[in-house]
Amino acid sequence: MALYRINHISWWKEELPNGDEYAEADRNLDAHDRAVDFIITHCAPKSIHDIIGGGLYGTDDLVDYLETVYQSCSFGNWFFGHYHDDKRIGEKMVLLYEKILRYDMLEEYRENKERGTEP
């Protein structure tokens, strides 16, 4: 089984954001002084992507861009999927696969994490 997807076979380059979409994301983050309660993405930033894949996963513009967001933003938690596992990575990164969190319960999740009682 291949570790990465192949363009026009198992994924399409058009799935990735384009330059205008990255610029729009930056404008929105800048409008909030790059400080948000939560970040929710499909993939993880490159440094986390590398931890999960043990350096075996290929990278692309998206995980590279997400790394710049990771390094430049203040956030409470970052939730992401893609890697087919459920686990916390460090203090703020949360990989979700089978575990489901309702949006209205995210604040409760953060409070439980701070108390060390997260489900």
Describe what you observe in this structure:
The protein is an alpha/beta fold and 119 residues long. It has one domain (13-115). It is 36% helix and 17% strand. The chain contains four helices and four strands; from the N terminus they run αβααβββα. It has helices spanning 19-31, 46-53, 61-72, 106-115, and strands at residues 35-41, 74-80, 87-89, 93-95. It has a four-stranded mixed β-sheet with strand order 1-2-4-3, with helices on one face. A hairpin with a 3-residue loop joins strand 3 (87-89) and strand 4 (93-95). It is globular, with a radius of gyration of 15 Å.
Strand arrangement within the widest β-sheet reads 1-2-4-3
Please, what is the average pLDDT? Answer: 88
- Return the structural class: alpha/beta
Poorly predicted runs are none
Question: In which range does the helix fraction lie?
Answer: 25-40%
**Largest β-sheet summary:** 4 strands, mixed
State the order of secondary-structure elements, H for helix, E for strand: HEHHEEEH
The overall number of domains is 1
